[in-house]
Amino acid sequence: MTALVVGISHRSAPIALLERLAVDPDGAAKLVEDVLAYPHVSEAAVVATCNRLEIYAAVDRFHGSVEDISQRLVEPAGGSVESLIPNLYVHYDDGAVSHLFRVAAGLDSMAVGEAQILGQTRDALRIGQEQGSVGPVLNTLFQQALRVGKRAHAETGIDRAAPTLVSAALDRAAGDLVGRRVAVVGAGAMSALSVATVVRRGATEVVVINRTPERAERLATEYGVRWAPLTAVATEVAGADIVVACAGASGVLVTRDAVAAAPGPIALVDLALPHDIDPSVTDLPGVSLVTLADLVDELRASDAGAEVEAVRTIVNGEVEAFLSARRHASMTPTVVALRSMATSVVESEMDRIERRLPGLDEATRAELRHTLRRVADKLVHQPTIRAKELGDRDAVSYATALAELFALDPEAVDAMTRPIEPGHPGAES
């Protein structure tokens, strides 16, 4: 099984299309179920954020799998599937490894280097584990990607050098927040980042508004601010100087009428997909609106210079180390099967000798066995050394050639990679 990723993001498609494809947690779970139903897919996970939707799968065939997954990903947008496919990107095998490592490290984010994607990647793995849709291929890949992301943030100053999406939006919409009243619509990860940011930047009054009161109260309590139910959104918006909306609910949460009721100028930030704020509010006097689409070019142009290069160096090194370890691991079953075959030949020849010469004394028998083993070891020694030398270059081809040359039983090679079944004599108790 090999890793495949089919995705769409701010780098490959307009925000308007991303909005049509946005999924909530239930939608992501359904997407995983649908992908797992395809004949060549054994594992699946979904990374869904405000500016990307990616399906990761373990597949045994590329072409049929990529066609099925691509169509399923874009179908919810409506219209011609063929016209939407060019907005997708596909990474396979080594490319899938490199892509996920870059994503987890923040190199592929709208705000390069932002740390929120690391938590979203962790959520994708956790949900996949809970659904039972993640197996050895994706579990290993995601676990390593998370380690790479943590290392990138721990060993570089990318957190200080690169702006967060929230910070960039607030800078553009409102600038100084000291003494301002801020309403945050939503209580998810982006909302929590928004609350933390506006509190840190000196907002006088902050209120968290959410459909689920318990989540609103929990987030508000964490930062010592107020909370309000979604039914009070119009009142809270009318009393705010700045509104940050990132709930991503189906349907508009901040209406034109609610914004029109504000007595003075109001700055709106909509970081949700689908959007939370009625786009027509820009026609109202004293109203400014910043959306994800407004931030794409600005954030692409921003560069954290040396810090980004430091993260790239870490990611490149980790990708090569991961692929090298995987290539070496792919050689191991063939080498073990070769040595096992040599041992079997020795035992077979010893049995033949003992049948033909039943009167051999124990010392002679032991010397013959030792000699046969030495001959067998010498015969397989050079192929084993070459396997280690070539493991970093073309392990799969060499392993295949080795198996063909020595007529190794494919079942014997496969058996070296299978987990030991419970109850087997070699299983751990």
Describe this structure in words.
- This protein is α/β, with parallel strands linked by helices and 429 residues long.
- The chain is built from 17 helices and ten strands.
- It has helices at 15-21, 25-36, 62-74, 81-84, 94-104, 116-131, 136-155, 158-161, 165-173, 189-200, 213-223, 233-238, 256-260, 292-301, 306-356, 362-405, 410-415, and strands at residues 2-9, 41-49, 52-59, 89-92, 181-185, 205-210, 226-229, 242-245, 266-270, 287-291.
- The strands form two sheets. A six-stranded parallel β-sheet has the order 7-6-5-8-9-10.
- Mean pLDDT is 84; it is low at 416-429.
List the SSEs and their pairings.
Blueprint (H helix, E strand, L loop, with lengths): L1 E8 L5 H7 L3 H12 L4 E9 L2 E8 L2 H13 L6 H4 L4 E4 L1 H11 L11 H16 L4 H20 L2 H4 L3 H9 L7 E5 L3 H12 L4 E6 L2 H11 L2 E4 L3 H6 L3 E4 L10 H5 L5 E5 L16 E5 H10 L4 H51 L5 H44 L4 H6 L14
Parallel strand pairs: 5-6, 5-8, 6-7, 8-9, 9-10
Antiparallel strand pairs: 1-3, 1-4, 2-3
Helix pairs in contact: 5-7, 5-15, 6-7, 7-15, 15-16
